[in-house]
Amino acid sequence: MFLLMKEAILNIIPGSPVLSALIFIIVLDIVLYMARKPVHRGIKSISFILKNAMRITSHSVLLAENQLQKRNRDVLLAAGIDATERLMEREFRRVEETLKRDLEGYPAIQRNMAELIAKIDEDYRISTEVPPSPPEWVKVVQSVSIIPASDTMVARMLGEIRSTLIQQEKNALSTYRESTSKRHSMLRKMMPYWRKLSETLAHVDASISGILKRSSHIDRQIQDFEDIRKGSEKAVRTLSSSSMTQFTISGLVLLIALGGAMVNFNLIALPMSEMVGGASFIGPFKVSSISAMVIILVESAMGLFLMESFRITRLFPIIASMDDKLRRRIMVAAFILLFVLASVESSLAFMRDRIAADIQSLRSALTGLEPQEPTQASWIPMVGQMVMGFILPFALMFVAIPLESFIHSSRTVLGVVLAWLLRAFAYLLRLFGNIVKSFADFVMAAYDLFIFPPLWLEDLVKGNKVESDNSDIGSDPEVIKDVITFKDENSVSAEKNDEDGDDTGVFETVKKGKNDKK
Amino acid sequence: MKKISHAFLLFSLFMLTSCFQTAQNHTRGVYMLLDTSGTYAEEIQKAQSIINYLLGTLQPGDTMVVARIDSGSFSEKDIVAKATFDSRPSVANKQKRVFLQTIQDFASTVKGSKYTDISGGLLQGVEFLNEKGVGKKVILIYSDLQEELPKGHVRDFPMELSGFVVVALNVTKLRGDIKDPKQYLDRIEYWRDKVESNRGEWKVINDLDRLESIFE
Questions:
Q1: Contact A277 B88 (CB under 8 A)
Q2: Confidence class of residue A81 from pLDDT cuts 50, 70 and 90?
Q3: Phi, psi of B139 (to 5 degrees)
């Protein structure tokens, strides 16, 4: 087809291919010059439609992204409120426990202290020292002592008095010492009471300090709670970062748990074929493999229920909101099932060892080797497998904690990722629209370049200087009219909605053209 | 909570779709033809290693048959040992031990036959495996592929080998092949043509160290 056309063009004037080609180019130039306006209009229209479509779509995508951001924020704040509520609840519970433990016996402590103080007071009162009163007859002795010493009678009397005094002094001193000793012993007895009192006070002081510390912690959390409730940027940033961290950590722990589950699976897949048969398939999977996987999943589910009934996780609010009696029953049921399944796994691990030994023996026979005698140490892997089979289900039980964390944080993280993707998509749409517009400008410029001789002649005829931007069709009043009409009909509303104001579409071009014309 | 229910729904859908695929048969059936004619009877000891490999490879639910190629192989009497392994691994292992013993007994007492009816054995294998209804059907021909039929035996008939993999093992070179290798190539080409024209898949494995390609 192309060759035929080429043949026809080069034979417009038979025998003169160059002249034929020249004539063809001139005719083509004239035809293209005549078709210039509709072609430019067509290209402009297509680019306008595509650019506008991209812009509107981009705008819609950005709106969706905004909605998603809002939703993410709501989810994040809700999660934050929930987490803070949990923390506060825990703190209140601790305070309650402290109050119960330490201050529940406060009246008893108080009574004890009052009794101790009363005892101490009484002992103190008893132990007060009463100074011995001077004897009344001292004045009589004084009077007698004034009498001159020459009187023997007096001298004998004084001597008698002296000896009596010495005797009485001795007696008084002895009595005083005895009473002082008693007081001292009483004061000594008071020592443990003082110590006990001091200890009780120190204990009360520690309890009060603990409660004060907790209350300051609660104050801080209430402040956080208030921030989250108000939806402050700081709270959102903190929660977002925390959510990302939680997502990463819980994802890693889940991967570790997956590894554990795979080990568990390999431990019981072979012996399961002894129970359910190794020749049945469901789809591309062996029934024995599926059964082993189901056992592991059921164990995980039981572990999940157990953690739920302990109120450690809250994936099933119905379990958390059950009354304690029913919840405890579920706990016991889940534990019994888990224990039974763990025992089954342990026995399957034992069976696996036997089957593996049998297969090994057959392989030895097939390869012509003598079957190996079981060594003394051969029971070690068997016991190891059995222990693993029993322990792993209980270990997998704790997967519920990272699972809950992963599910909660993934809501936020996925939302953020999706929002980012939407933003990128909106940017790409905008970029594509602008590329289309620029490409249309380029095509029109190339078109005009191809027909530059008639354009140049047109300018000469009009007596105007060739304009620098020959491709700008906006300067043509007819085109302006057409394009404005087209625009008014199709996309004025879209233009209004464009908040960015960076639209370099036809409207501006047309306006510019109008101004240039003026 | 919503996500858990979605995951559960997906898992249920997966299980349902898997159940619909149960029609797919995963069992394998191997029918091994042992050439006991002439000098090839000496190669029977080597065949034992192939049988051992197969016994070690086949899984519970699979079927294995070893039959001899003699003057008239289209007969159940030529079946030396056959077993469909139980779905329980322990029972399957016992069956394999019995199978191994039977083959060892056969190898120690085998006598060379005058003729080599490969086509009859092939047809017997096709019928047997079709009757068993196994998923993957493999016929192994442990022979030099030199067919020699007694007078009056007709073996020029079409066979339905669709779904069968026919593997020629240890195709030894005869004296004439050394002088004229074209005879050997023609012999292999004849059997390839015979199998492929009946819509079967043809393989030749002379290196017994790469037996794993039987099931590839």
A1: yes
A2: confident
A3: -115, 125
